[in-house]
Amino acid sequence: MKKTLRPATIAAHAAGALDPQSGGVVPALQPSTTFTRDENYALTRPDNIYSRDNSDNLRQAEEVIRKLEGAAETLLFPSGMAAIAAVFRTLANGAAVVVQSGIYWGTTSWVRDFCARRQITLIEADLPDLVKQAQQSGAAMVFVETPSNPWLKTVDIAALKAAIDAVLVVDATAATPILMQPLAIGADIVMHSATKAINGHSDVLAGVLSTNDIAAQIWQDIRADRKGAGAILGPFEAWLLTRGMRTLPLRIERMSQNAIALAQHLFDHPKVADVFYPGLPSHPGHEIATKQMNGGYGGLLSVLVDGSREDALRVVAKLQCFLRATSLGGVESLVEHRHTIEPHTGIPENLIRVSVGIEDIKDLIADWDQALD
Question: How far apart are CA 10 and CA 26, in angstroms?
Fold first, then answer.
């Protein structure tokens, strides 16, 4: 039976993470950084030496994500960018890498700087050219984000992997393992900023990588680098993450329902120029998203106000249920005027990124109506 458990059951039971010492149905928090040995200097527990690589709370959280992801192994990091950095540090000097353009700016900015320092050839390509650039450059790795932030571009993972001879790394933060399992459709490594919807409560920084090929050299390098460099999530953060994931399927279901309803409403609103959301039939990636996402399209969308930068800022200022803050995937709905944050990226001045939470959809729609009107 354990092999057939569905995501909601895996999450609710935290993959069986109980506290055997007390009998508690909630896993205990163990903050110790070091662990005892007996008189002969044998470890009290062979799997616990030092918390840089040994932590019950870390292993518990990793096991929940591993099962939700359908992975062979999962590794947690102290942030999403730490997880991305661990992947890119496996590239040899002089290698080539293809990175999808128009993805999360934090990724693009760090990768550009890293590749310049390491003499790695970086090729940024939009969706139609990803395969061509990967083939022509002999790239060792292709890195994509689907759905992307903030453009909500959608990549056909299976088709891309079939056409390239490179390690395919997929950032699936906006989808979460509940809506999409990239490893099952061709990805070699899947990455998430667990800070976002996986935790879902805006109180933990975490990143995660998962794979089905534990023996691959790149995975061995990532594992060794995490241990040696100490890029480890602390026990309290791991404990909070496990707690947050117990409601992950419920939260994603509600967020997806709210997001599609809001996207449809705003798409028809006379004061909205366009809505980017893969759940809308008008979205260029709708068919791909429908094929590889299951149960919804996530809680992230972007809205183009019919007007100027000042008009978009006025709308953001008038929103009340939607909080003005940077991030996404939490239970609370957020909005961000992206051009104010990243004016150098070419983002439209009238674009508002929206992270839809779990509130009542009638309140969310009413909030946008009063702000637009």
Answer: 14
pLDDT band for position 127 (50/70/90)? confident
* Domain 31-245 class, CATH top level: alpha beta
**Quick one: 247 exposed, middle or buried, by C-beta within 10 A (0-12, 13-18, 19+)?**
middle
**Torsion on CA atoms 337, 340, 341, 342, rounded to nearest 10:** 110
Same-fold call for 31-245 versus 248-372? no
Q: For the chain, give percent helix, strand, coil, nearest 5.
A: 40, 15, 40
Could you tell me the pTM of the whole model? 0.95
- Angstrom distance (rounded) from CA 161 to CA 167: 8
Fold adopted by 248-372 = Aspartate Aminotransferase, domain 1 (3.90.1150)
Q: Domain segments of the chain: what residues?
A: 31-245, 248-372
Whether 107 and 134 have beta carbons less than 8 Å apart is answered as no
* Secondary structure (DSSP) of 282-308: TSTTHHHHHHH--S---SEEEEEESS-
